[in-house]
Amino acid sequence: MTRGRIELGDITQHNIKQLKRLNQVVFPVTYNDKFYKDVLEVGELAKLVYYNDIVVGAVCCRIDNNDNQRRLYIMTLGCLASYRRLHIGTVMVEHVLDICAKDGNYDNVFLHVQVNNEGAIKFYEKFGFEIVEEKQNYYKRIEPADAYVLQKSFRNKPNTATTNSVTSDSPPAQDKKS
């Protein structure tokens, strides 16, 4: 079986309704008009995903400058159920990570995941995300209401660079081939 063609496309005034409809189907929460207005302003941080020219997913992010950190927040990343396991989610996460790598100034990228969404948690862990916090009653009108904050850090944790270095007058040991 040949794999389909996966492409990312800009979100514009002309296709924003497709994003709204997709989000209604994929997510258990409703996004307000401000969310969609903001998505139109973020350029590369929001993309529709096409599988063989059909809109099947989307990723929407925003820059978050809090706690003296520059972070990228994944507001939504989702794909229609019948198109899952076709590497569409991987394309979306890689797009986000590429943005972070090219920019070079993000401390981390993070998102919220409902605590019972084991599939999503395992998916993000494959890309190096870790659960860093649990937020009680994060979601309104859905159960469970709690969410994990998953995060992938790009900066060294404090002191790791200095505590792991060893100073010595002798040259480093050479690997011997057997």
UniProtKB/TrEMBL annotation:
<feature type="region of interest" description="Disordered">
    <location>
        <begin position="158"/>
        <end position="178"/>
    </location>
</feature>
<dbReference type="GO" id="GO:0031415">
    <property type="term" value="C:NatA complex"/>
</dbReference>
<dbReference type="GO" id="GO:0120518">
    <property type="term" value="F:protein N-terminal-methionine acetyltransferase activity"/>
</dbReference>
<protein>
    <recommendedName>
        <fullName>N-terminal methionine N(alpha)-acetyltransferase NatE</fullName>
        <ecNumber>2.3.1.258</ecNumber>
    </recommendedName>
</protein>
<dbReference type="Pfam" id="PF00583">
    <property type="entry name" value="Acetyltransf_1"/>
</dbReference>
<keyword id="KW-0012">Acyltransferase</keyword>
<dbReference type="InterPro" id="IPR000182">
    <property type="entry name" value="GNAT_dom"/>
</dbReference>
<keyword id="KW-0963">Cytoplasm</keyword>
<dbReference type="InterPro" id="IPR051556">
    <property type="entry name" value="N-term/lysine_N-AcTrnsfr"/>
</dbReference>
<feature type="domain" description="N-acetyltransferase">
    <location>
        <begin position="6"/>
        <end position="155"/>
    </location>
</feature>
<feature type="compositionally biased region" description="Polar residues">
    <location>
        <begin position="158"/>
        <end position="171"/>
    </location>
</feature>
<dbReference type="InterPro" id="IPR016181">
    <property type="entry name" value="Acyl_CoA_acyltransferase"/>
</dbReference>
<keyword id="KW-0808">Transferase</keyword>
<dbReference type="GO" id="GO:0007064">
    <property type="term" value="P:mitotic sister chromatid cohesion"/>
</dbReference>
